[in-house]
Amino acid sequence: MRDFRNIIFVLIIILFLLQMIVMKQDKKELRSEPVVAVSTFAIYDIVKHISDGTFKIVNILPFGVDAHSFEPTPKLMASIEESTLVIYSGAGLEPWIKEFDFKNRSLDISKHVELREIKSDEFDLHEHHDHQCAHSKIDPHYWLSISNMIIATNVITQELIKIYPQHKDLFIKNAQNYMNSLKQLDNDYNEALKSCKLKSIVTNHNAFSYISNKYGFHVEALSGLSPDTEASAKDIMRIMEHIKEDGVSTIFFESFVSDKAMKSIAKDVDVNIDVLEPLGNITADEAENNATYEMIMRKNLTKLSKALMCK
Questions:
Q1: What is the CA radius of gyration of the chain?
Q2: What DSSP character marks residue 310?
Q3: CATH number of 191-307
Q4: What is the mean pLDDT of residues 101-114?
Q5: What torsion do the CA atoms of 68, 69, 75, 79 make, to the nearest 10 degrees?
Q6: Which CATH class is domain 35-188?
Q7: What is the pLDDT of residues 257-301, one digit of tens each?
């Protein structure tokens, strides 16, 4: 009887030791699992479509938060620094990125795409000059160029293959499907906006130069590249005069920017007002409904085509 008890005891110890070994192995594998952190919605959309659930994606910018005013917490910064790969927009959109000390790989997409330099006379900026009002700036909203999204998809795909080579074929296949949908989107923009009665749209700030430059219309903005710039009375009068002279029927604002000034203008000149999304981020409701870059860009196209009175 005593021998039997000893055997049972030894078996329990062996099982315990085996369980500890398995747990340690699981933790080791968990730590080695690639984690990719992304800074903006457009990059998130690319990575999500390419990865097809093969690794964890950390969205640095929470859904429903304005990309221009976001500041990561110290805890978030510490976790991001440990990521296998960090992909960010660059071009000055994330000033907080300078505070990071990346322990692994990082990828600045702005170094690979075609950036636009915006001159103040492109959108008739107010005459006073301050730190918000330079004669020329780089427009950081380059993801609104569909051709830039195709470039970014290629670059990101190659980077993902480096950290997860066993999924190379899957990544290439998914990337090709994603780029095909982008090419179709570009064709649809060209077709829908090729013949329009009006040649300009009115927005609260000029986040749409990549679209307007590609598809042949003008952006009349209440402020410049910064959505936080406070509009002067002269700016408001300029916009109201433009609306009346050009016969504009709809003006636009963004989801994460105060709509107070634009609603006041719309009421004073009796025009419609709507949301046009620059896609730096999406709302929490859109995320809940699994909104994609293509879906929102198509919504933008419908609104642009109507506002420009396209055939």
A1: 25
A2: B
A3: 3.40.50.1980
A4: 88
A5: 0
A6: alpha beta
A7: 788 889 999 999 999 999 999 998 999 999 999 999 999 999 999
